[in-house]
Design a protein that fits this description.
Blueprint (H helix, E strand, L loop, with lengths): L1 E5 L4 H13 L4 E6 L19 E5 L5 H8 L4 E4 L6 H6 L2 H21 L3 E7 L22 H20 L3 E6 L2 E2 L8 H10 L4 E4 L5 E2 L2 E2 H14 L4 E5 L5 E2 H11 L7 E4 L14 H4 L9 H14 L1 H4 L6 H9 L12
The protein binds nicotinamide-adenine-dinucleotide (NAD) and 2'deoxy-thymidine-5'-diphospho-alpha-D-glucose.
C-alpha cells in the first residue's frame, strides 16, 4: 500500500509510522505534517532515511497540496488534529479549522483521487461522559468539549462521505493514550517530567476522574488492524479496559521516580470535565487485535523512557509551553518558580 499519513510526526501518528516501516517494509509512507507545537520531526528519527518513507511539511487545510498527495495514495490514515482538551477550552477555533475543516479537505481529496481507503483516527471522547457501563460503536455521539465536538464533527463528515459517495471509510475511536514521544502537556508525560524536576503535579479537582489508559503501541497496532482488516463503513473502539484516576496516575508516577507525595497539588478543575469514558472493544478484538501492554508495566517503561530521553522533552518545556501552563494552571503560578 501507498499510505498518506497526515499528523504522522505527532505522538500516535509517529508510532504508527515506526510500526508500519518495521512491519510492512514494502509499503510506502508519506507523512504530511504542519509541525505545530505538538509535531516533532525527532519522533521519526528511528526511521529517518528509510527508503520507503518521505516527509512533507504542510497543512491538511491546503487543498491543492492535499489533492496532489492523495492522488498517489492507496489509503489515507488521518492522525492530524489539535488534540489537547484544555487548549480547546481556551481557543476552540483552531480545533474546528484543523479537526473538522481539515478532515473535510482530506476526504474531498481522497474522493477525487478515486476512493482509496480513508481511516479517520477518532477518540472515545466523542461518546461523552459515561457514568456506567461501556460505550459500544452503536452508541450515540454526545461530545461535551470543543475538542471532542470537533472530533465528532470530523466523524460526521466522514460518515457523510460514506453515505453520499460510498467511500471506503473506517473510523477508530481510541482511549487515552500514553507512551514515548508524547508532548508533555498530557497528564502522564506532564506528571513524569514535572516529577523529575521536583515540580508540583497539578491534579484537576479532587482527582477522581478516570481514564482508560492505552499504550501507544497497542493503539497504533489497533489502527493498523482496522486499516487492513476492518470493514469499510465500520467504526472500531480501541481501549485497554482499565479505569485509573488522576490521583492514581500521580501516585504511580511518584512511586516510580521515588518522589514524595507532597508533590501532588490539587488545582481548579477542568471546565466541563468528563468524569469517565469506557469502551467495549469486542468489535476490534474480533479482527484479531488485543492490547499487549498492561498499565503498570507500560507506565514504568514510559517513566524510564522520559528519564532516559531528556534531550527529547526538555527543549519542549520552554517558551510557549510555560505561557500556556501559566494560563491553564493559574493556581500554580506562585508554586512553580518556572512559570512566574
Ligand atoms: P498530537 O497532538 O501528538 O499530534 C498531532 C499531529 O498533527 C502533530 O504532529 C501536528 O503537527 C499535526 N497537525 C496538527 N494540525 C495539523 C494540520 N493542520 N495539518 C497537518 N498536520 C497537523 O496528537 P496525538 O495524541 O498523536 O493524536 C493523534 C490523533 O489521535 C488525533 O486525531 C487525536 O484526536 C486522536 N486521539 C488521540 C488520543 C490520545 O490520547 N492522545 C486518543 C484517541 C485519539
Ligand atoms: O480519551 C482520548 C483522549 O485522551 C484523546 O482524544 C485526547 O486527544 C487526549 O488528550 C486525551 O484526553 P484527556 O482529556 O483524557 O487527556 P489529559 O491527559 O488531558 O487528561 C487526562 C485526565 O487527567 C483527565 O481526567 C484530566 C486529568 N488531568 C489532566 C492534566 C493535563 C489532570 O488532573 N491534570 C492535568 O494537568
Amino acid at each position: 500500500m501507498r499510505l498518506l499519513v497526515p499528523g504522522g510526526a505527532g505522538f500516535i501518528g509517529s508510532e504508527f509510522v515506526r510500526q508500519t516501516v518495521a512491519n510492512h517494509p514494502v509499503d510506502t509512507v508519506v507523512v504530511l505534517d504542519k509541525l505545530t507545537y505538538a509535531g516533532n520531526l525527532h519522533n521519526l528519527d528511528p526511521v529517518a532515511g528509510h527508503p520507503n518513507l518521505s516527509f512533507v511539511h504542510g497543512d491538511i487545510c491546503d487543498a491543492e497540496l492535499v489533492s496532489h498527495l492523495a492522488a498517489g495514495a492507496d489509503a489515507v490514515v488521518n492522525f492530524a488534529a489539535e488534540s489537547h482538551v484544555d487548549r480547546s477550552l481556551e481557543a476552540p477555533g483552531q480545533f474546528i479549522q484543523t479537526d473538522v475543516y481539515g478532515t473535510y479537505v482530506l476526504l474531498e481529496a481522497a474522493r477525487r483521487a478515486g476512493h482509496g481507503r480513508f481511516l479517520q483516527v477518532s477518540t472515545d471522547e466523542v461518546y461523552g461522559d459515561v457514568a456506567e457501563g461501556a460505550s459500544a460503536e452503536t452508541d450515540p455521539l454526545r461530545p461535551r468539549s470543543p475538542y471532542s465536538a470537533s472530533k465528532a464533527g470530523a466523524e460526521l463528515m466522514v460518515w457523510a462521505y460514506r453515505a453520499s459517495y460510498d467511500m471506503p471509510v473506517v473510523v477508530t475511536r481510541g482511549s487515552n493514550t500514553y507512551g514515548p514521544y508524547q508532548y508533555p502537556e498530557k497528564i502522564i508525560p506532564l506528571f513524569i517530567t514535572n516529577a523529575i524536576d521536583d515540580l508540583p503535579l497539578p491534579i484537576y479537582g479532587d482527582g477522581s476522574a478516570v481514564r482508560d489508559y492505552l499504550h501507544v503501541s497497542d493503539h497504533a497496532r489497533g489502527i493498523d488492524t482496522a486499516l487492513r482488516f476492518g470493514t469499510p463503513g465500520e467504526d472500531y473502539n480501541i481501549g485497554h479496559g482499565g479505569e485509573t484516576s488522576g490521583i492514581e496516575v500521580a501516585d504511580r508516577v511518584l512511586a516510580a521516580l521515588s518522589k514524595p507525595a507532597s508533590l501532588k497539588e490539587h488545582v481548579s478543575d477542568r471546565l466541563g470535565h468528563d468524569h469517565r469514558y469506557a469502551l467495549d472493544t469486542l468489535k476490534l478484538r474480533a479482527l484479531g487485535w488485543q492490547p499487549q501492554v498492561g498499565f503498570g508495566g507500560g507506565l514504568e517503561d514510559t517513566v524510564s523512557w522520559y528519564r532516559d530521553n531528556e534531550p527529547w522533552w526538555r527543549p519542549l518545556k520552554s517558551g510557549e509551553f510555560w505561557d500556556f501552563y501559566r494560563r491553564n494552571y493559574k493556581p500554580l503560578r506562585a508554586a512553580t518558580g518556572q512559570v512566574s
